[in-house]
Amino acid sequence: MSTPRIRTSVARMHAYVPGEQPRDSAIVKLNTNENPYPPSPRVAEVLHAFAADRLRLYPDPACTALREEIAALHGAQPEQVLIGNGSDEVLALALRAFVERGGAAGYFVPSYSLYPILAAIEEARTYEVPLTASFDWVDPDPEEADLFFVTNPNAPTSLLHPRAALQSFCRAARGVVLIDEAYADFARAHCIDLALSTDNVLVTRSLSKSYGLAGLRVGYAIGPAPLIGAMAKIKDSYNLDAIAQALALAAIRDQTYMRERTQRIRTDRDEVAAALRERGFHVYDSETNFLWVRPGRMEAAEWFQALRERKILVRHFAQPEVRDHLRITIGDEDAIEALLQAVDAILGV
Ligand SMILES: Cc1ncc(COP(=O)(O)O)c(C=O)c1O
Fold it and tell me: What is the 215 CA–ligand 1 centroid distance (Å)?
């Protein structure tokens, strides 16, 4: 048997490690920032009415109806919108479209841990900018990256970057700045206006969090038509299947439902933050659907284990700059109660 020939960059790299999807349905899953509520009832209606015969044909490669709807939602033109198979696909396309081989992809540390993986696949150099010890903004060198990813609000830290600093970095940056707004519907501010007014800025959004559609895999980018066109050129022709296009359209059309649910999660988030602070946790001011906390009394890794033994699954990252922290998704009422009961039991109160 001959040795398989694997591209060196792929052989050397580590795969992205997604949050665990446990099989045990008794586990309270607060580890991957999914929405605890179902998507809009309109999505279920469209799904039930979807005729299987439509699947004989290829889907619309340009996702025309969905792009028009998203463009109208943000006051943009359809040619300023690209739809992806999850926003992860859009991030990968951006790397391929804007970073030369051997060029540099930049991002803050900590931020979304997929960026270095995407860079490794494409044999790009990385330009890592460490945030301060309290995870605050640090000005990146505007000359260093061909593409700089800014997760905003940031994950896993839950914090919104200051608008003025971000805006001046975008203006100064030599390369493309991609503002990853996967959690923006839970935040007080967003940067779509920057993407629509600055020729090197893209904003990406996800339907996985605020729309409760992580299983569908739909995300999008918004920004200058030349950048969107470059990514469209290299995407798979049929990157979004017909069912995903139809369901995403129904979800986007029901803004009222999405707003109601995100508001509920924001209210719960602030209550859980207060409850955890009372129990001695340091909780950052979250602008997302999760909390970034530094627990007291025990190491974060021990908290992770102790919660897990009580069937509460949260996220712990082992990297030195974040290992003292836990990321906890805001669940529904039952999940929140289970979390707080488990915390009390661990604290022995
Ligand atoms: C910051 C950030 N960007 C993008 C994504 C990916 O979202 P999608 O499900 O749309 O691919 C995630 C998912 O957790 C995320 O945390």
Answer: 12
Provide the 3-class DSSP secondary structure of residue 166: helix
Residues of the chain with confidence (pLDDT) below 50: none
pLDDT for the residue 331: 97
C-alpha 100 – ligand 1 centre gap (Å): 24
Whether 107 and 239 share a structural domain: yes
Q: Which of 45, 83, 24, 28 is nearest to 220 (CA)?
A: 83
pLDDT for res 101: 86
Number of domains in the chain: 2
Q: State if pTM tops 0.85.
A: yes
> Is there a domain that residue 2 lies in?
no
- pLDDT score recorded for residue 102: 87
Q: What domain range is 29 assigned to?
A: 8-39+256-347
**Ligand 1 binding pocket includes 178 (Cβ within 6 Å):** no
- Calculate the dihedral angle through the C-alpha atoms of 253, 88, 193, 142, rounding to the nearest 10 degrees: 180
What is the C-alpha to C-alpha distance for residues 247 and 27, in angstroms, rounded to an integer? 28
Residues 315 and 272 in one domain: yes
Q: What is the CATH number of the domain that holds 311?
A: 3.90.1150.10
- What is the reported pLDDT for 1? 53
Which residue has a Cα nearest atom 7 of ligand 1? 87
Judge if the beta carbon of residue 16 lies within 6 A of ligand 1.
no
